[in-house]
Amino acid sequence: MKHTIIIAEAGVNHNGSYDRAVDMIHAAARAGVDYVKFQTFKSEKLVSASAPRAEYQKRNCGGDDSQLAMLRALELSYADFARLADECRRTGIGFMSTPFDLDSIDFLATLGMDYWKIPSGEITNLPYLRKIALQHGRVILSTGMSTIDEVEAAVSVLEGGGTPRSDVWLLHCTTQYPTPYTDVNLRAMDALLACRCRGVGYSDHTQGIAVPVAAVALGAKIIEKHFTLDKTLPGPDHKASLDVAELTGMVRSVRAVEQALGDGAKRVTDSERPNIAVARKSIVAACDIAAGEIFTERNLTVKRPGTGLSPMLWDTLIGTPSTRAYHPDDQIQ
Questions:
Q1: pLDDT in tens, 261-271
Q2: Which domain does 13 fall in, by range?
Q3: Whole-model pTM?
Q4: Of the residues 261, 284, 315, the one at which a domain ends
Q5: CB burial readout 72-84, b (16+ within 10 A) else e
């Protein structure tokens, strides 16, 4: 893949509003991403009534609500997701949504997504992995909070269920919002290659765009990044998300890096070729030289432009007689 797949993670940053979710589709399309991705779940099937919120969720949402209450406020209906998928098709952007329960897998299977996205939290969910495997589609598996042995175990489940490794992409990820730079460890993408899947990518939770752009330079073929229409909105993920301008900047930077990576062969490029004569030097006379005079270190020097005899032939010229007279700065023929 020469083209890095960029996934704009809308997640639950619509705050339970279908209209805001539509606006996010249009904003992601304008930013130039390949896919916009949501999260599909039924709150009661995802968490128990006693499940606590993560610390970052408490910081960002405030109050004493349970995780269940928080998620209920962020939930969209299956009908909403069907309409969002249609809106993506009309807008010309790919639709994806991560299922967080088994019923949501069944529903999303009716929408014909290009990829199944498995979140980091489901990497040890055996029934979930088996059901995804039975869809026989292409899979993107996030690997936050996991060891390489857990990743391999999850991939083995997918493979055993009918999804070959050649259809599985692994995303390195650190599940903290925002992720400290010291915990990113982009080189862990190399470790994921040992799982012999289709390829590797990176799901980013750091602030800014530097890390995902660096991931592309290191070989990531898929980039996933949260975005929001307004970082000041209430909700668990807004503060660690890009705004639309930042998302647009990330896309442009990734595309620039893609072009800059090239094919690895060292050659003279078409753009630099005209500068050879300007920047390189030629052997010239350092002083007046008579015909028949012997060329020496004293009567020769090198100067720009590089349109004459290459200085790499210096040793060949020294000690030979001049065939003609030269004035200072004349190129030696």
A1: 999 999 999 99
A2: 5-261
A3: 0.90
A4: 261
A5: eebbbebebbeeb
